[in-house]
Amino acid sequence: MSSDANNIIKWKEKPEWFDQINFEEYEKLAAIGYTPRQIAMYYKIPFNDFDWYYNLIGSPLRYHYDRGQLVQQAKEGLVMTVSAETGENVTQAQRLDKLRREVEFKNAVSNIFYGDII
């Protein structure tokens, strides 16, 4: 089994196109909802090459993609929390409840499928 673990492909070296990515912009594209395929196209990177590096263990491409989505969702949640605290904005309170359920569901799925490995 340990030999199998050694054969897992991990992020080791960055590709030549890696430095052309502005990761602040990249995270914003992920936050908007663009897919990795669309982001590769945006940066004029062949998708198969981008996808290979995106799916490697420890990939900074995956990390920044996930971080972009998380930061945006967290910012929206914080704004909704402030608006819902007063009780005056029922719509924001409902959106906050929906967001909480979505986050709770994603966390439960991750825990079931990945357990302690993430």
Would you write up a description of this structure?
The chain has helices at 2-6, 23-32, 36-42, 47-54, 60-85, 90-114. With 118 residues, it is mostly helical. Helix 2 packs across helix 5 (60-85). The two termini are 20 Å apart.
Q: Briefly, what is this?
A:
This protein has 118 residues and is an all-alpha fold. 69% of the residues lie in helices and 0% in strands.
Helicity, as a percent range: 55-70%
Strand count, sense and barrel status of the largest sheet are: none
Extract low-pLDDT stretches.
none
Topology as a string of helices (H) and strands (E): HHHHHH
Percent of sequence in beta strands: under 5%
Q: Structural class, please?
A: mainly alpha
Count of separate DSSP helical elements: 6
Count of β-strands:
0
Shape: elongated
* End-to-end CA span: 20 Å
Mean pLDDT: 86
Nearest-angstrom radius of gyration?
A: 18 Å
Compile the SSE list and pairings:
Elements: H1 2-6, H2 23-32, H3 36-42, H4 47-54, H5 60-85, H6 90-114
Helix pairs in contact: 2-5, 3-4, 5-6
What keywords describe this structure?
118 residues; elongated; 69% helix; mainly alpha; 0% strand
